[in-house]
Amino acid sequence: MKTIPLTEYLKEKRQAEVAAEIGVTPAAIWQMVRAGRQVQVTVHDDGRVVAHEIKPLGKHKAAA
Asked: Which SS3 state, helix, strand or coil, does residue 3 take?
């Protein structure tokens, strides 16, 4: 199992392929990257691919 940032994973595979693996549209992938969201992709030993977003909880303002 390995976990890498979405931006790094996109260097290995096409946007459409990554979108299909995690169950979103290619446009959603583009929006995640463009917005600078902290999305981590975990590739399990059995081939499953899961994405998770890391974000603060509560009433935090975004850093400028």
From this structure: strand
Res 56: pLDDT: 81
Distance from C-alpha of 53 to C-alpha of 19, rounded to nearest angstrom? 15
Q: Tens digit of pLDDT for each residue in 3-18?
A: 999 999 999 999 999 9
Length of the chain as a residue count:
64
Are 4 and 38 contacting, i.e. CB atoms less than 8 angstroms apart? no
R_g of the chain, CA atoms, integer Å: 13
Confidence at residue 30, expressed as pLDDT on a 0 to 100 scale: 97
Helix (H/G/I), strand (E/B), else coil: 15: helix
Cβ neighbors of 4 (< 8 A, separation 6 or more) are 40, 41, 43
